[in-house]
Amino acid sequence: MKGQPITVYRLQNFEGQAAPTSPPTSQGTSLGFPGAEWAQKAAPFLQGLLPPNLIPPGILPGTQPGAPQAQQQRFENFPILGYQQPSDAALKSDILDTFGKGSHFVTDRDTCMFPEFGFALAQADGTQAHILVSLSCRQVQARGFVWPHANVGIPNETAKKIADIAKRTFPG
């Protein structure tokens, strides 16, 4: 894989629940709370009293919600916070060295997977080897290729190497 492009991703390892797109309904009222019928009748009057853009569109009856936000880019189904293609030969060598040696990994430490980083390593055949790294769960996961090592747990020394790679890749 030496000489092949590498992309390092900073990932959001969790996602909150999406906000509901429309108000809930219950008790035979369209807004789902006592007095909802009164609120529907008063909505035009309330909108005239309040400054523009104080209440988001879609909250009061008769207003339209805003356009949906664009889908966030993802790496192995995790939202991407940022990415870089390192050009520094020493950094690329450190990445390949870290993931290329079985001695850098130990037996599984945890069963969770909340990856903070992703690595896409181009292979000579044109495919990519994807590696998810969860420092919080102390393990890696291989995607799109067979992990060449017996273990996937991250010991302290390897965690320090990966943290150093991340600092050098995403300075600041």
Molecular structure report:
The protein has 172 residues and is of the alpha+beta class. The protein has a domain at 6-14 and 74-169. The chain contains three helices and six strands, in the order βαββαβββα. Strands 2-3-1-4-5-6 form a six-stranded antiparallel beta sheet, with no helix packed on it. A hairpin with a 4-residue loop joins β5 (128-134) and β6 (139-143). α2 (89-100) runs antiparallel to α3. The chain is elongated.
Gist of the model:
This protein has 172 residues and is an alpha+beta fold. It is 23% helix and 19% strand.
Give the count of helical stretches.
Answer: 3
- Class based on secondary structure composition and strand pairing: alpha+beta
Strand content: 15-25%
Helix content: 10-25%
Task: Please state the overall shape, judged from the principal axes of the Cα atoms.
Answer: elongated
H and E string: EHEEHEEEH
Distance between the termini: 28 Å
- Oligomer description: single chain
| Largest beta-sheet characterization | 6 strands, antiparallel
Report the C-alpha radius of gyration, rounded. 24 Å
Strand order in the largest sheet: 2-3-1-4-5-6
What is the arithmetic mean of pLDDT? 82
Tell me the number of strands: 6
Extract low-pLDDT stretches. 24-30
